[in-house]
Write a structure and sequence with these properties.
single chain, alpha/beta, Spore Coat Polysaccharide Biosynthesis Protein SpsA, Chain A, ten-stranded mixed beta sheet, 17% strand, globular, disordered C terminus
Length: 339
């Protein structure tokens, strides 16, 4: 490990040539000799490699590893941490932006030797021109969590952790924990963090230091499977937490909710294909089969328009969202976007 490197910013990427340049600009503009960037490219077929190599000329502490085949987001982030030389690894995304002062704020927190540092974020539209939510976590000041408050940490931040870019973790902690069991979940970092209590304190930085491009997550196209099956299955796999704590983070079987399926139908993410693949094998009750199949065939455009009118009038959102994507699925912005 290079003793001069304190923080490794680890990025797994795939076909993000359109966005990764802006991400790297936001990092390099505030980086110093104690910072490195490690990028693992899962066999991109666009101009990602060309763009990253241009930035290597500007910032020699950028290391780029291109895989011959796509390994998957969990494996690629794990590989990036393996290659990292810093004491801490920031698992950052390939399309979001660091706000000014973000690296210095994290470096200051690192001086307290926390095991885990979580960085709050604002949510913007895809071109970053409009703020949709000023801060994801509704924290007004930094919060430190000791080991005995691990369940409270879980309840407070697990939902937010569907966004990997907020995670700054000691490399030694990452290395000591099980990872392969969480490959394929799309959230290996959540498994690493919550599989057992963290001995060192965890710090949550309240100031939003990241700008997230809403609706641009790499798993958005698979959000039906991930949000309704993979994510709840992962949350409910953490048997060390009480049932009430897990229920607060996410319902156990959200796919049983007609309202939820209506939302996904309105978004064009639930159809007979999804019904036959994911729901039909799980349903025994013939009435439930009929109802959920019926929802899968409703006209999505009219549902979308109806939701848009409804949320335009009432303007509310869930206090505890199912995932990062679901946090804004009730917003007027979302439905207007799809009309």
């Amino acid at each position: 490990m290079d003793s001069k490197i304190a923080l490794s910013i680890c990025i797994a990427t795939h076909n993000r040539g359109t966005f990764i340049g802006a991400t790297l600009d936001s990092i390099i503009s505030q980086a110093n000799e104690k910072i490195e960037i490690v990028i693992v490219d899962g066999a991109s077929t666009d101009n990602t490699e060309e763009i990253v190599k241009l930035y290597q000329n500007k910032f020699p502490q950028l290391r780029y590893a291109r895989l011959s085949v796509k390994g998957g987001v969990d494996q690629d982030y794990s590989r990036a941490v393996e290659l990292a030389q810093g004491k801490y690894c920031w698992l950052f995304t390939d399309d979001d932006i660091l706000k000014a002062g973000a690296i210095q704020a994290v470096m200051t927190a690192m001086q307290h030797d926390y095991g885990l540092i979580l960085v709050n974020a604002e949510i913007r539209n895809i071109n970053l021109s409009e703020v949709l939510k000023e801060r994801y976590l509704n924290f007004v000041s930094n919060r430190a969590y000791q080991k005995e408050y691990f369940e409270q940490l879980f309840m407070d931040v697990a939902d937010y952790l569907s966004f990997i870019g907020c995670v700054v973790i000691k490399k030694s902690l990452w290395n000591a924990r099980e990872k392969k069991a969480y490959f394929g979940t799309a959230f290996v970092h959540v498994g690493v963090i919550f599989q057992s209590p963290i001995s060192d304190e965890t710090m949550v930085l309240a100031d939003p230091l990241i700008s997230i491009r809403y609706g641009n997550a790499s798993w958005t196209d698979n959000s039906f499977e991930i949000s309704l099956f993979k994510w709840p299955d992962l949350i409910w796999s953490f048997s060390g937490f009480s049932e009430s704590a897990r229920r607060q983070v996410h319902r156990r079987e959200p796919w049983r909710s007609v309202k939820t399926l209506l939302i996904y139908r309105a978004r064009g993410l639930y159809s007979l294909k999804e019904y036959n693949k994911y729901l039909k094998p799980r349903l025994v009750n013939p009435i439930a089969r009929f109802v959920l199949r019926f929802v899968a065939q409703l006209p999505g455009f009219f549902l979308n328009f109806g939701f848009y009118l409804y949320f335009s009038i009432f303007r509310f959102h869930y206090s505890h969202s199912e995932t990062l994507l679901a946090e804004l699925e009730n917003s007027v912005y979302f439905y207007k976007k799809y009309l």
